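Revision sheet: structure tokens.
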Amino acid sequence: MIRLRQVSRAYRESSGARARALEGFSLDLAAGTMTAITGPSGCGKSTLLHLLGALDQPDEGTVEVAGVALHSASEAQRTRYRRETVGIVFQFFHLLPGLTLLENVSLPLVLAGVGRGAARARGGELLSLAGLEEKGGRLPHEVSGGELQRAAVARALVHRPRLLLADEPTGNLDSANAARVMALFQEVHRSGLATIVVVTHSAEIAAQIPGRLAMADGGLAPGGAAH
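Predicted:
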């Protein structure tokens, strides 16, 4: 499902110096797995997620996901990949404040040209999976942070992606809401809906995920793989 080979990525700092985020990084993850990526700030976790989400490209090496060579894909191919193959959940929910939860969840399908009726029906299915079937008509400011994040997960899954990426999905939640969000990820994993990669600083969250990879200094930490 995911195959990275000798991937390097550097960024230009404000001082003009180049900072390496990934250096000679290689990784294989099988379809249907659920993996936590852990490590200190600056170790390359978010860069890895951006590469897998086709939000960035490597300076060197190859990135292949679900048969798509992202390192050499055209912008049109990358756009299609983002629209069809991957779903992304961020730490901040990024729901549109003027739309209801159902409208937010359905929006990716509407933008892809799916009829509004079909899009709303699919959105309702995902809200039900997230335990929010009674909250679909509410606006984002009318629900809790945990409910917002579960709605964000539902939105990321509405187009049936093969890969679900989550960047610190519980970082802004209290322990009770974090547990509810993690229960949703576990349900997605058990249902085989998507391969899941979760970036997290939390050892407690990582311990709930079957596969774990620890990163350090732009690569895997020594002994950093656990399944």
